[in-house]
Automatic annotation (TrEMBL), chain A:
Gene3D superfamilies: DnaJ domain (1.10.287.110). InterPro entries: DnaJ_C/III_chloroplastic, DnaJ_domain, DnaJ_domain_CS, J_dom_sf. It comes from the Eukaryota. PANTHER family: CHAPERONE PROTEIN DNAJ 20 CHLOROPLASTIC, J DOMAIN-CONTAINING PROTEIN. It holds the Pfam family DnaJ. The gene is LOC109726270. It comes from Ananas comosus (Pineapple). This is Chaperone protein dnaJ 20, chloroplastic-like. GO terms for cellular component: chloroplast; endoplasmic reticulum. CDD domains: DnaJ (cd06257). Residues 50-121 form the J domain.
UniProtKB/TrEMBL annotation, chain B:
Signal peptide: none annotated. The lineage of its organism: Eukaryota, Viridiplantae, Streptophyta, Embryophyta, Tracheophyta. Residues 161-182 are annotated as: Disordered. The keyword Magnesium applies. One of its GO terms (biological process) is chlorophyll biosynthetic process. Keywords: Isoprene biosynthesis, Magnesium, Metal-binding, Thiamine biosynthesis, Thiamine pyrophosphate, Transferase. It comes from the Eukaryota. This is 1-deoxy-D-xylulose-5-phosphate synthase. It comes from Ananas comosus.
Length: 177, 717
């Protein structure tokens, strides 16, 4: 397999290739929803808490059975209908925790999503425990967006782009040649 | 943001003798109706980290310089071209110097401060990266353009800003080639920028077009109309969303900062706080590795997907409209701003791009940062202490009187509700909001929606009062005609800033409302001649429940007449004016506060032994036909006076006179209206003189009609 560039270049991108078509890359979809769930579960549970901690199992070790048992245990305790504690007490807090548990289970019970999540934990083990400065997050964020702008530029220049702007750009581009 | 002025809500003086427990606080007003928000809410806000000030002359007593600090770098920059060789470090220093320059200039002239301070770095970065005036930079509303004006050859004229014959407080094409578009009303910049971009494309030019719009202005529909069209046309342009979380004006109620209205603000907040899932990106790249195949194509697909996740749920709004979203970006970080702008500029084809810049209103001036209203609009102030100079006035502004009147009406009638469009302070409705928190609606900068919303409320039996400035109601004219007047729904319009408005100039001038309201078949149109009349007219409007009605009143303070007890007006008989002074030969029929000028003219004429009649029409529609008939029959000369354009009160009187044969006799009718041109910004007295509606002008007109031209000249000199 050809060597992959680790990051997308900010300079002029590689030429060639047709326009990007918006399609569903199945793995990418799973990856995105896994991490989306992961982030929201972590957010519900609190920053810096991993999904394993939410369910109360050892990280990475639990088999499917253990995950399921842990989930059932937590659900029995937290579910509003099944709750052992008297009704009306701290139900908002309980509801929040239950949602966190549910989302954690959704991710960890699916072997594929769980694998992706494990990998993400491994690659940046301390990220979930770190309060990174918001502004430095922003910087990484827009650096990625700028990188993407280059790709988008190719897309916009493709012959398939029929927008008014594209037609005008082509017209003036031709007249210069 | 829909702007005008800086009429901030004052506190109400205890005019209500019946309620001594009501807390009173001193609320002095400047002449001309400029109030200011006191600092008493400072303690409620968290202490921000303070940026260290450059230079040595920090005052002992205050937190800012007492004297203007030296600005060596800014002194070398007259035009953006002088900035091109500066290093980033020097640009940061330039920004600091520019900031102090803005503060010291505004401290001497008054004007808009907070918004200008928030965009200093952005202005420097834009002029550094782009090449105005070939590259078009548009500032939405324009009240944040003070740094822009300083950097584009107008620094020496900054002391004249907002004054007669001085710089405009907003951008203006006739003032400078660097001002690409005239602004003053909000949310027009993206539309204009798109027009300039398309014009550029049609002409085959290659310049950049950049629109800077605030999050407040983004709440207006026109911004979406423009973005929608921009996404469709796909022309290259840049929209910079200046997000400082302030969407209403002033940016505070009487009791503290206003939480942003509308769903857009929470979407923007989510954008700012969403943690980018960098981990996901790595994961996604790992996935690409596994899948293999053409790295280029797949990586792009994954990237597009990942971007959807990284950007969070809010950016898809702009993406769906077709604008490429970049951000959020720290708007006070010069490095970041310049990097991003350079990158976007150097990318060959971008289509429309939206850069979400987060700034802090009032940044760099500690008093502004702490104030609940962020010093949006200020009078002259002392830079070292932040204290604004208030001159005492014996009366309050018409705005305050309106608010009191409405509160008094709403106390006895629970169906009265109030609506405004992001102008809680400017309309005085912040006071109403505090008293009736559930009956005051701020819809954001959306006048069209406000009017139809009021119509809907009226259908359900409520009594809506729409408080919208005369010039801003222009935006909602079709809604007034079609949704309110055509269906005869009893919506009440309270049009503040009618007539000439002083320093804000023609962009905010309410010259046309008599014309456009009085021509509507079902509308009751009235105007008070003083503040007591205003109370009565608010009561009248509240009582009119079978058709729409409107009241117009000017910027400025009352004249000091006795107010009705308990602030509760008594409804007037609709279509009945009154005679104020009985005289002979000449009758002055005034409409609105022009009546005061008529009374002053009458006393001028009395010195020349001419005792004339002065009448207050009160209603333009329906006209007091009996009064006009009697005036026309018993006088040689009838002069109608109003502070409005042609087609208003005078025209309605003329129509009536003509149709009833009253012009066939001996009476001479003359109208006095605003001239058929825009009156530039300046002091109110200068503007009135320019318009030819001062008492001297009225008296001279009378003499001219009577043939006594020498006396006319005497009066005018």
């Amino acid at each position: 397999m050809s060597a992959l560039r680790p990051t997308f270049p900010l300079a002029a991108p590689i030429g060639g290739g047709d326009g990007f078509r918006r399609g569903r890359a199945g793995a990418a979809a799973a990856a995105s929803s896994a991490s989306a769930a992961a982030s929201s579960a972590s957010a519900s549970a609190g920053v810096g808490v991993s999904l394993y901690e939410v369910l109360g199992v050892a990280e990475g070790e639990g088999r499917a059975e253990e995950i399921k048992r842990a989930y059932r245990r937590m659900a029995r305790r937290l579910h509003p209908d099944a709750a052992a504690s008297p009704p009306g007490r701290a139900t908002a807090e309980q509801a929040r925790r239950f949602i966190a548990v549910r989302e954690a289970y959704d991710t960890l019970s699916d072997p594929h999503r769980r694998a992706l999540y494990d990998r993400s934990l491994a690659s940046s083990p301390s990220a979930s425990h770190q309060e990174l400065d918001e502004r430095s997050h922003w910087r990484k964020h827009w650096q990625d967006q700028i990188a993407e702008l280059c790709w988008r530029s190719i897309d916009k220049d493709s012959e398939d782009n029929l927008s008014w702007g594209a037609r005008m750009r082509r017209k003036w581009g031709e007249s210069l040649n | 943001m829909a702007l005008s002025t800086f009429s901030l809500p004052g506190y109400v003086l205890g005019v209500n003798a019946a309620d001594p427990q009501k807390a009173t606080s001193l609320s002095p007003h400047l002449l001309g109706g400029v109030d200011f928000q006191s600092h008493k809410h400072q303690h409620r806000l968290p202490k921000p980290r303070r940026k260290p000030c450059v230079c040595a002359s920090l005052s002992e007593a205050g937190e800012y310089h007492a004297q203007r600090p030296p600005t060596p770098l800014l002194d070398t920059v007259n035009y953006p071209i002088h900035m091109k060789n500066l290093s980033i470090k020097e640009l940061k220093q330039l920004a600091d110097e520019l900031r102090s320059d803005v503060i010291f200039n505004v401290s001497k002239t008054g004007g808009h401060l907070g918004s200008s301070l928030g965009v200093v770095e952005l202005t420097v970065a834009l002029h550094y990266v782009f090449n105005a005036p070939q590259d078009k930079i548009l500032w939405d509303v324009g009240h944040q353009s003070y740094p822009h004006k300083i950097l584009t050859g107008r620094r020496d004229r900054m002391p004249t800003i907002r004054q007669t014959n001085g710089l405009s407080g907003f951008t203006k094409r006739s003032e400078s080639e660097y001002d690409s578009f005239g602004t003053g009303h909000s949310s027009t910049s993206i539309s204009a920028a798109l027009g300039m971009a398309v014009g550029r494309d049609l002409k085959g030019r290659k310049n950049n077009v950049i629109a800077v719009i605030g999050d407040g202005a983004m709440t207006a529909g026109q911004a979406y109309e423009a973005m929608n069209n921009a996404g469709y046309l796909d022309s290259d342009m840049i929209v910079i969303l200046n997000d400082n979380k302030q969407v209403s004006l002033p940016t505070a109620t009487l009791d503290g900062p206003i939480p942003p209205v509308g769903a857009l603000s929470s979407a923007l907040s989510r954008l700012q706080s969403s943690r980018p899932l960098r981990e996901l990106r790595e994961v996604a790249k790992g996935v690409t590795k596994q899948i293999g195949g053409s790295m280029h194509e797949l990586a792009a697909k994954v990237d597009e997907y990942a971007r959807g996740m990284i950007s969070g749920s809010g950016s898809t709004l702009f993406e769906e409209l077709g604008l490429y979203y970049i951000g959020p970006v720290d708007g006070h970080n010069m490095d970041d701003l310049i990097t991003i702008l350079k990158e976007v500029k150097s990318t060959k084809t971008t289509g429309p791009v939206l850069i979400h810049v987060v700034t802090e209103k009032g940044r760099g001036y500690p008093y502004a940062e702490r104030a609940a209203d962020k010093y949006h609009g200020v009078a002259k102030f002392d830079p070292a202490t932040g204290k604004q100079f208030k001159s005492s006035a014996k009366t309050q502004s018409y705005t305050n009187y309106f608010a009191e009147a409405l509160v008094a009406e709403a106390e006895v009638d629970k169906d009265i509700v109030a609506i405004h469009a992001a102008m809680g302070g400017g309309t005085g409705l912040n006071y109403f909001l505090r008293r009736f928190p559930n009956r005051c609606f701020d819809v954001g900068i959306a006048e069209q929606h406000a009017v139809t919303f009021a119509a809907g409320l009226a259908c359900e039996g409520l009594k809506p009062f729409c408080a919208i400035y005369s010039s801003f109601l222009q935006r909602a004219y079709d809604q007034v005609v079609h949704d309110v007047d055509l269906q005869k729904l009893p919506v009440r319009f309270a049009m503040d800033r009618a007539g000439l408005v002083g320093a804000d100039g023609p962009t905010h001038c309410g010259s046309f409302d008599v014309t456009y309201m009085a021509c509507l078949p079902n509308m009751v149109v009235m105007a008070p001649s003083d503040e007591a009349e205003l109370f009565h007219m608010v009561a009248t409007a509240a009582a009119i429940n079978d058709r729409p009605s409107c009241v117009r009143y000017p910027r400025g303070n009352g004249i000091g007449v006795l107010l009705p007890p308990g602030n509760k007006g008594v409804p007037l008989k609709v279509g009945k004016g009154r005679i104020l002074v009985e005289g002979e030969r000449v009758a002055l029929l005034g409409y609105g506060t022009a009546v005061q000028s008529c009374l002053a003219a009458a006393s001028l004429l009395e010195k020349h032994d001419l005792k004339i009649t002065v009448a207050d029409a009160r209603f333009c529609k329906p006209l007091d036909q009996a009064l006009i008939r009697s005036l026309a029959k018993s006088h040689e000369v009838l002069v109608t006076v109003e502070e409005g354009s042609i087609g208003g009160f005078g025209s309605h009187v003329a129509q009536f006179l003509a149709l009833n044969g009253l012009l066939d006799g001996k009476v001479k009718w003359r109208p006095m209206v605003l001239p058929d041109r825009y009156i530039e910004h300046g002091s109110p007295s200068d503007q009135l003189a320019e318009a030819g509606l001062t008492p001297s002008h009225i008296a001279a007109t009378v003499f001219n009609i009577l043939g006594q031209t020498r006396e006319a000249l005497e009066i005018m000199s």
